[in-house]
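can u do me a favor
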């Protein structure tokens, strides 16, 4: 859908705004806001988190501060933005009283009646403004910088009058609400596809492809019956486990080499994310001990619950390459790598990992000792290959649908970003666009 433009524009004099509607005022942030700097304790003022989704209550499991006034006070109607460039997009108008980290900037309106905070919420969260905000920052370390209020207060804004701010905010709330609902639908579809994918794998690796095959008790209560001619054997009898390197060791007295190493973030469910691979320095004599070999099944020791046991087969994409100590390399001896990876992707293996893991709030980890006791179901080799072919065919369809859903989400989010930027900088005139009536 195309939107009308204003009849007349004027140059703003700044790149991020470009030309703005002729009636809009060009004023700096400091004309509308001052910085709220009052320090308080989260024991008195509830802790809030500055997130990509706005200002929300801090989750109960998040670390709380020690005694003392080491938070910034936030009042309802303030705008809060995280000043660090690695938190780009974390900001919003607060609907709550509370406190935030000292790294955040809290903006208090000079005159709450002069600005419409829902409009400010969209304006200062727009991609164009966010880029300008962090462009005014100063470096802390490489690739990380912070912007303070003394720089922020001089950023020029194009501001319509209050009724127009209200109209723009209402339009954006309506339109972004619709887009967010469509994104939520696609995310629900992706979750459903993920569940169906898991169900296909789990049924295939525990019951096979023949619904009429005779069954026998597996000897494991939560696994149930398995085909009569299959074996159930502990992982330690058919594979070895290689642990990874721990960071922070003192190698000052040894000859070292620098090698790529995989972290938990690199090892996803069924694939590797190798876009960013870190390097580590290790003693040169340790390379053989820790090097990955083609066919190793990589598995995460833990982290968030969804990361526990997550992994894929290593195909030698980087040579040499090692893993950090939170990523196991399971090296098969008497089982195909692909079959072992399918087993560890099943819901029965995930159940095993959860019941044998050490757990704290939202975190879990499994030891190599417990991992080696994982029951592995073994059909004859030819049957394994038939089942793997079936799984590959079925899951490829789920993967295709999932990729399509993700592309739809990406397009919707791009449209959302562009729509907000266009409306809050006056590139489109939304004042006379009526709400669409429900069908």
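np, heres the sequence
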């Amino acid at each position: 859908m195309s939107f009308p433009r204003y009849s007349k524009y004027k140059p703003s004099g700044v790149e991020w705004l470009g030309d703005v509607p002729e009636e809009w005022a060009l004023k700096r942030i400091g004309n509308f806001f001052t910085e709220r700097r009052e320090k308080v304790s989260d024991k008195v003022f509830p802790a809030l988190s500055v997130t990509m989704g706005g200002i929300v209550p801090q989750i109960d499991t998040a670390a709380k501060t020690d005694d003392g006034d080491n938070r910034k006070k936030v009042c309802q109607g303030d705008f809060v933005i995280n000043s660090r460039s690695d938190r780009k997009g974390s900001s919003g108008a607060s609907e709550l009283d509370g406190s935030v980290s000292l790294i955040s900037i809290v903006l208090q309106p000079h005159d709450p009646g002069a600005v419409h905070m829902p409009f400010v919420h969209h304006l200062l969260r727009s991609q164009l403004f966010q880029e300008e905000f962090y462009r005014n920052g100063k470096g802390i370390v490489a690739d990380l910088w912070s912007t303070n209020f003394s720089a922020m207060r001089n950023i020029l804004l194009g501001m319509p009058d209050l009724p127009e701010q209200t109209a723009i905010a209402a339009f954006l709330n309506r339109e972004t609400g619709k887009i967010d609902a469509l994104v939520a639908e696609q995310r629900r579809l992706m979750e459903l596809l993920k569940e169906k994918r898991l169900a296909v794998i789990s049924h295939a690796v525990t019951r096979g492809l023949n619904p009429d095959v005779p069954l026998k008790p597996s000897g494991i209560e939560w696994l149930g019956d398995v085909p009569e001619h299959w074996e159930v054997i502990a992982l330690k009898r058919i594979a070895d486990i290689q642990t990874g390197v721990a960071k922070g060791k003192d190698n000052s007295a040894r000859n070292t080499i620098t090698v790529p190493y995989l972290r938990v973030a690199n090892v996803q469910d069924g694939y590797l994310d190798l876009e960013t691979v870190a390097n580590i320095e290790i003693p040169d004599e340790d390379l053989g001990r820790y090097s990955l070999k083609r066919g190793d099944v990589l598995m995460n020791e833990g982290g968030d619950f969804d990361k526990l046991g997550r992994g894929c087969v290593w195909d030698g994409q980087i040579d040499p390459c090692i893993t950090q100590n939170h990523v196991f390399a399971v090296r098969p001896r008497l089982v195909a790598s692909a079959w072992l990876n399918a087993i560890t992707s099943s819901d029965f293996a995930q159940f095993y990992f959860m019941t044998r893991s050490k757990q704290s709030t939202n975190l879990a980890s499994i030891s190599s000792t417990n991992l080696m006791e994982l029951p592995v179901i073994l059909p004859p080799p030819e049957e394994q290959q038939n089942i793997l072919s079936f799984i590959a065919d079925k899951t490829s369809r789920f993967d295709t649908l999932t990729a399509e859903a993700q592309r739809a989400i990406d397009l919707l989010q791009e449209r959302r970003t562009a729509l907000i930027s266009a409306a809050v900088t006056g590139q489109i005139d939304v004042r006379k666009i009526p709400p669409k009536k429900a069908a």
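The first strand starts at residue 9 and ends at 11. hope that helps!!
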